[in-house]
Design a protein that fits this description.
Elements: E1 8-10, E2 13-15, E3 19-21, H1 37-45, E4 52-58, H2 75-90, E5 95-100, E6 117-118, E7 128-131, E8 134-137, E9 142-143, H3 149-165, E10 170-175, H4 180-185, H5 200-203, H6 205-218, E11 223-227, H7 241-252, E12 259-263, H8 276-282, E13 287-290, H9 295-303, E14 309-312, H10 314-318, H11 322-328
Parallel strand pairs: 3-14, 4-5, 5-10, 6-9, 10-11, 11-12, 12-13, 13-14
Antiparallel strand pairs: 1-2, 7-8
């Protein structure tokens, strides 16, 4: 496993290993979306990751999609996140915050009756959202007007400022999994015209504008981007995911990001294909692979130059000392899905360390 344990320069950081912790929504904040000591303990336990990418965090108020997810738009949230960054740094770790807007995945019952917004008035189908009144169908979003989009970009910029004030080492822009930036990017959810619709260069405009705004705060060498060109989660499809991936890989070179975080597959197998190969061919920066990697495949993929690092999700969820277990060839604890989104420490901070 020597490739997984070789240091790597990722933007402004040098990571001691290439085993990253993927962002995992766990719904452990309070009703005001403030992260507390429990979240700090959870991340500090996992500080041996080369880099922790903290969970999807609300960049601005009024756009909750998970009820108890954290935010980064209030003073209380900044103070709450300081608990986490202080604890992770004390344990020798590095941590980025994932900045996020749920778009049409939000729900009025989570946002004081506010209708969600999206590039086009198309609802998520075939799934339901957790609310204080139980699981509810998603609602049809309101189409964002062009003149409202600058406020979205400004919200991401302010969130980046707040993440810096909270002590993070950088930020990841969430452009994946059917949330707002991904909704604009893929043609299955973006059916608008004008400067933010139609050809790929228009559909990608919001994501690129957000990257530019966030990079102005942090420097692009402390900014990552996550994409999921194939993933159909949240009713997402694209007519040409390989072509989209190829275009993005070329265009993102100019952004000089710390890394590009690529979810390589589809949770539901509605779309198949190889998006990593064209991204590797055309993208000149650090590529972090994600989705379904086991340690041996990850190590081989790094050795072959297909990717530069790997973000593990459920492996880190149930194994706070995942790098040590991989290095020792030890058995991994299996995660308990019934506690993925439940409150409290069970299934969150009580997974055992290796003896």
């Amino acid at each position: 496993m020597s490739n997984l344990f070789s240091p790597i320069a990722v933007g402004a950081l040098t990571l001691p290993n290439r085993i990253l912790m993927a962002p995992l929504t766990r719904c452990r904040a309070d009703a005001e979306h403030v992260p507390g000591p429990l979240i700090a303990e959870h991340y500090a336990q996992r500080a041996s990751a080369g880099l922790i990418i903290a969970e999807a965090t609300m960049a601005m108020a009024g756009h909750s999609a998970f009820w108890m997810e954290p935010g980064i738009y209030s003073a209380a949230q900044v103070a709450g996140w300081k608990l986490t960054t202080t604890a992770v740094h004390a344990a020798g770790g590095r941590i980025f915050l994932q900045l996020w807007h749920g778009g049409r995945a939000c729900h009025p019952l989570l946002n004081d009756g506010i209708q969600p917004v999206a590039p086009s008035p198309l609802a998520i189908v075939g799934d339901e959202v957790h609310t204080p009144q139980g699981k509810q169908p998603y609602v049809t979003p309101r189409e964002l007007r062009d003149d409202e989009i600058p406020a979205i970009i400004a919200g991401f910029r302010q969130a980046a400022e707040n993440a810096k004030a909270a002590g993070f080492d950088g930020v990841e822009v969430h452009g994946a999994n059917g949330y707002l930036l991904d909704q604009f990017l893929r043609d299955g959810s973006n059916q608008r015209s004008g400067p933010y619709g139609g050809p790929v260069e228009n559909r990608a405009r919001l994501m690129l504008d957000v990257i530019e705004a966030v990079s102005a705060v942090w420097g692009s060498n402390r900014v990552g981007l996550r994409i999921s060109p194939l993933n159909s989660f949240n009713s997402m499809l694209d007519s040409d995911p390989v072509g989209l991936s190829t275009w993005l890989a070329k265009r993102l070179n100019a952004c000089q990001l710390a890394y590009l975080h690529v979810m390589r597959g589809d949770f539901f197998q509605q779309q198949t294909g190889d998006v990593l190969s064209p991204i590797r061919q055309h993208y000149q920066g650090i590529i972090v692979g994600n989705m379904g990697y086991q340690a041996d495949e990850a190590n081989a993929a790094i050795a072959a130059g297909l990717i530069d690092a790997v973000a593990f999700g459920t492996g880190f969820l149930a194994n706070p000392d995942l790098p040590a277990r991989i290095e020792a060839g030890a058995a991994l604890t299996s995660p308990d899905p019934t506690t993925f989104y439940s409150p409290g420490p069970e299934g969150y901070t009580d997974y055992p360390f290796m003896a």
